[in-house]
Amino acid sequence: MGKVTGSGESWLSDGLDDVAGNDYCGLWVPGVDYVSGWRTAREAADRLNRALLGVGIELSAVRAVASTDGDGGGVVRLAGRPEAAELLAGLLEGLADRSGGAA
After folding, report:
1. Which residues pair with 62 in a beta bridge?
2. pTM of the full predicted structure?
3. Which pLDDT tens digit goes with each residue over 21-75?
4. Cα(74)–Cα(55) distance, rounded to whole angstroms?
5. Taking the C-alpha atoms of 75, 10, 56 and 78 in order, what is their torsion angle to the nearest 10 degrees?
6. How does DSSP assign the chain, residue by residue?
7. Distances (CA, A) of 38 to 71, 77, 87, 99
8. Do the beta carbons of residue 74 and residue 47 sit within 8 Å?
């Protein structure tokens, strides 16, 4: 399966511009392997983005973005419009209702 979050020369920076979440000062710590965590997060974000597309949600409305935390661990963030987040929440709630709740 192809990558959804990007390709070409920007593969290294794709998603890393959001590395500074609310709990992180935005400075990279020397010696921390951020790229490894980001790659893991990118694989998960790609899978989630394919699933979003599969249920008809455009990535311009909501998408998964690969990032890292301050320790270099992978993080997947959802970014999008509130109405798309509401749609996604409704889909997940419907799935939970049909399966008897969350596992």
Report:
1. 80
2. 0.67
3. 445 456 677 888 888 999 999 999 999 999 999 999 999 999 999 999 888 899 9
4. 25
5. 20
6. ---SS--GGGGTTTTGGG---TTS-SPPPTT--HHHHHHHHHHHHHHHHHHHHHTT--TTTEEEEEEE-TTS-EEEEEEE-HHHHHHHHHHHHHHHHHHTS--
7. 11, 12, 27, 32
8. no
